[in-house]
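Troubleshooting: if your tokenizer reports a length mismatch, compare your output against this known-good record of 297 residues.
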Amino acid sequence: MGSLPQFGTTMASKDRWFIWQFSDKDEAKIRYREYGPADSPHTPLLFVHGYGGMIEHWNDNIPAFSDRYRIYAMDLIGFGQSTKPNVRYCLELFAAQIKAFMHLKKLDKIILVGHSMGGAGSVIYAHLNPERVRGLILANPSGLYGDSMDGMAKAFFGLVGSPLIGEMLFAAFANPVGVSQSLTPTYYNQKKVDLNLINQFSRPLQDRGAMFSYLSPSKRPHDFMLEGIKPCNYKGDAWLMWGAEDTALPPHKIIPEFQELLPQAGAYIIPKAGHCIHHDAHETFNARLAHILGRLE
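Known-good structure output:
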């Protein structure tokens, strides 16, 4: 595939829902969308958003590929418009949601495109179901931190684990001003952090139960780490795409950690992009993703 697919299909795909019973007594209503030709000969793609994200965070990416590929995107449990139950959130839960979605859509194989926490959840799914994954494409994935988490950060996570302090911090964060202050450091191109983006990320914070999901990574950080799966069972095609200006997960520290976990993974560092690489530098990201998908065909 020599050139980037043209934008032909809009983001007009309607919201769809399914009820996921993920334990004997717990269920969640999950929002998803589907795009592109149902009869595409290519392996379908599943886009998995990061912490605090939602389907719409892929709005600058999915249209570039929906003329050629069957594409799915969903809101992870606890985020976006999916319900937010009071359960133990962890990477394994997100991997189980991917498995349930694969069963729902009767998909034999998938190419996973995961950002940040969604990338880490995709790694867990690939580790547990390696035969179902055609390709693993990770955009600034979280889950491995090297020595980038200093003592102050660890102390902060300990404080958030306190119910009172955690609730106070959530109240301070769960508004447009707090969201704007949280998003700004994750972007190199500050113009991208506009009112539309801030509103997208602010709305789910008002949902019932949002505090449970949003505070989980800070209260139980080990539930969101990938240390326990070394070596990884997934030996198939894998790529890392990283924003050069990601200050939270600096590529020179974190990429070697991921290449220990996935030694077959190629790595691409995209200049002038921060943590939200797929939105921050969407044209460069899409071009690189097109190149990777071409190699998978």
